[in-house]
Every structure is written in structure tokens, then in C-alpha cells.
Design goal:
D-Maltodextrin-Binding Protein, domain 2, binds the ligand NCc1[nH]cc(CCC(=O)O)c1CC(=O)O, HemC, porphyrin biosynthesis, EC 2.5.1.61
Amino acid sequence: MRIATRKSPLALAQARLVATRLGEFFGLPVELLPMSTTGDRQAQWSLEKQGGKGLFTTELEEALISGEADLAVHSAKDLPGRTSEKLIIAGYLPRADPRDVLVLRSGVAHPGSEASPRPAPSSPCQKNGALTLATGSPRRRGQLALLFPEASFCEIRGNVETRLEKVASGFAVPGGAPASATAPPSAPAAPATPSAADALHTAPPPAAAAATASAGGRIPVDATVLAAAGLARLGIRTWPGLEFRPLDFGEMVPAVGQGAIAVQTRIDEAARYAPILDPATARAVRVERAFQAALDSGCQTAFAAHAAGDSLYLFHEKTGRRRFPLAEADYHAPADTAKRLLSSLGLL
Ligand SMILES: NCc1[nH]cc(CCC(=O)O)c1CC(=O)O
């Protein structure tokens, strides 16, 4: 069996999870077929804003259709609203922690740190105590603006480890300028040793930092947001110079599909993969995807839907965060549920 996957460290980790389950269940050799997608090749774009067009999926789907691969593995979050009609999402692995995590440079004062009696030292990057938050995602930006009304925002790009290193060092590339192949080299894949990280964290001093910011065209950042599931799959539980604070659904509604790994196959072969897939995850993600489909929202719309047990959490830039009760019957009619709730909010 051959598994088509993207080449990013996160995608490979996810494909290996599927490969392990397949190997255990079928006892057949499983091979990964790492591919680069349009989204990977266009790393200078603000990818979250370009979403919904299958930037990360089309090449994998082509490999399935041609027979080069037997399965394609995707982050459910990165699936476009409509996938290839010649293929089917056979299902999902059991969902990991779907929350987002606020990743703060250590020592940065923030509203969540008020509980601490000892005042945190203020960061050279903080203007009037307001945070500079780095995220290219309209969904995260829209919700962070509710949590941190004073914050200012900038873009951040690169894979998970690159982003962590940028926040730990206090700098990201500015939003407007495309990152090029000559962008500052990304951090080594492995977390730095504590001593190396301390050096990173304490240098450059504020004056040098300001100089670097203008000279290098980089801007200071205090924090970013990453998916807990992505961090976990990469084995990242801590990072030198950073604090991780998971955000509950009332603070940050996760993206549609966040934390779920989708397995796509040719239509007539889907059934054989059922033993490695999780029906409860499919049930929740189907509801979330129905909201995405009903809104058919442009890529710039700040929107999130997350189904958890008897609750549906929704965020939309026009309505803010909402929680609705979700009954068993609602799970059985995802499209109707989405239409009803979105209409009640005046969004349809
Ligand atoms: N946008 C990229 C992406 N797609 C899926 C994940 C994390 C894994 C998941 O949600 O399943 C991430 C990284 C992130 O947003 O932090």
C-alpha cells in the first residue's frame, strides 16, 4: 500500500501514524510517497488566506486517481470545501487535542499571566504593554483581537519549528513583503539545547534588536498560535524560551477539522479502510465541514466551527464567538443543522 503525503515534517508525521495503523491491521508493507504540492511550492504566499482551493491536496489527489498511491493523508483542516468527485474521504484517525495553543515568548506579560503575583518583565517588543501577535490566519487573528483588544498583528510563515524559533528569538518577517528563498534561515529541526536557547533568548539586547529590526526588515513578535495537535505530532511539548498556553473553546474556536487526520481513497476501496478509522471523529468533522460548505466563505472570512459532544462552537467575524447545543439528531443531518444555526445568526 502506498500513501501519498506532503513532505513537511508535520505531514510526514501524520502519514506515519496512518502507516502504522495500516501495518498493524493489514500486516502488509506500507510505503510513503512524499510529494510537494502547490501550497508547498508557493511558500511566500500567505497560505491561510489562500485556503479553500486545494492548494495542499490537488497533487495528492492526482496520485490517487492515477493509481500511483492507494491512500492520501491530509490534515482535515487543510482540506478544501469540495474534494475530487472521483475520490472519497474514507474517514479520519481518532481526533487529537483540537485546541489552539498560545505560544508566548517567556517573560512577556499577557492577560493570562495576571494570576502570577510576580509582575513579568516587560518585553522590548511590547508597545504600551500591548502584545504583537504573529499569525496569518484570519480565524486566529479575529479571535485573538477579542482576547487581546490592544494587540497588533503581523504575519508569520514557515513550518511549525520555524515559527517557534521566530517567536523565541522575538522576530518575524513583516506581513507585506514576500518571504524569499533568501529569507533568514529557518531554525534547525531539532530543538536547541537549553544553553543555546538561553543565548538566543537573551540576545540581541533591545538596542541591537531595534537595529536588526530595521536593517533586516524584520519586526518584533511576542506570541503566535499553533494547533496543539501539530505540536504533539512533532513531539514538541516545550521549547526553550517559550511558554505554551492551550486555549479552551470559549477563548479560541478551533478550525474546522483541526486535530483530525483525513484518509482519502478511491471510492470503491474506501470500505476496506474502515478498521483503522474513527466514526466519532467523522461524525464531528462532518458537522463542522457542513458549516464550512454552507457559508462557502471566501478565504478572507474569519470563521471557525468545532463540534464537541453536545456543543457546537462557532466563530464568525460578524457575530463573534457563539456556543449552541448540539443534539444527536443534529449530527445525523449536518447540512440542515448548519443552515438552521447560520440562518439564526443572519449569516445565510
Ligand atoms: N495550517 C497548517 C496546519 N494544518 C494542520 C495543522 C495542525 C494539525 C491539525 O490541526 O490537525 C497545522 C499547523 C497549525 O495550524 O498550527
